[in-house]
Amino acid sequence: MSRAEVDLQNSVKKACNNDEVPPKRKHVRACIVYTWDHKNSRAFWNAVKIQPLQSDEVQLFKALIMIHKVLQEGHPNTLKDAYRNRDFLSSLSSVFPSHGTAYGRLINQYDRFILQKLDFHRNNPGFNGIFEYEEYISLRAVNDPNEGFESIFQLMDLQDSINDLQKLIFATINQTPNNLCKVSALVPLISESYGIYKFCTSMLRAMYQQLGDDEALKMLFERFDSQHFVLRDFYTDCHAIKFLTSLITIPRLSNNPPNLQVTDEGTPIS
Amino acid sequence: MSKSFVRSIKNVANGYSSAQKIVRKATSNDPSGPTTYDMEEIASYTYQSQTDFLEVMDMLDRRLNDKGKNWRHVAKSLTVLDYLVRYGSEKCVLWSKDNLYIVKTLREFIHFDEMNNDQGAIIRVKAKELVSLLQDDERLNMERSAAQRSQGNHS
Known about the structure:
heterodimer; A: 66% helix; B: 9 helices; 72% helix
């Protein structure tokens, strides 16, 4: 094993030890940087697999946060490698009883979300792990409305799963010094939900430009509006947590959903 | 024994080139700096031979990936990199874009010092600002041509 792989194994081990604190950023960052330096993530997955994740709930939960982060920020090949390890990932959801402790429930739901995310990326390879608006290329120019519908349905399903997960996290946070471990799982969810939100806004606008008043589009608009409100409340809740506000910029959504019957630049469509 | 003295010994012991020495000086653990003069000098190295350019970037790369205790190395390297992107050779921009993930992943940098202050905040702000500059080609071009004009006035 090369020196880099040994270092990587150490980082993985330290990122998901069994202390009930957020996974340390420096170790997670080392994993992410490794996937870019080597343009693949096989060694990362091998290192995850040899961790004793079955032995401790906190450890497994931290591993899921780390995996989510690496999927988001790692080299694009990470998503493909992850899909090859789908069976391993799906086995993690049933390690602990999902009706038992808070961590058991969180792990179960988080793991199912990650699998859903992987399936989405498998079906829509044009998206990067964090749905960064600046970097997306393909879907804006979607000429086949059917394909557009399919993608946006899946995106909205993903958004719903994020919301379910964040609600569960908030429900299990209580006033203990150890709650930061759970809170830190919100960080990737905030960035991901906002990326999806921006995509949906832009895609729905583009689709309106093509299709005009369409019955099927109207349903999507309504669903988008209701997701807007859920998301707005989610971000407001996050603004109340100092750990989060100092670490990342939490977006603020306006009280009313954006007008979808204009272009992104705000000019109305005639 | 002062830190800068130790650094000058390390420079000799590790056989660093003059380009590497100036980068190490500009991104050291001293509370002050880097000075504009230091950064101008580093920028001028990036216009010289490919070796000089690579030495500068390689040293910055090492400093950017330094550990939390050396958060000043990271913060100052971001300052220098930001300067190079504006005033350095075109190669600096290409390098930064190729290695964008290094800067991107610093946007969540955390380090608590002995007083329990989060010194990572400054790094997070700098990293965010630099990433948004690098992703906005139009603004970057404007900044670079403005930088060139202002330098023309000086000399």
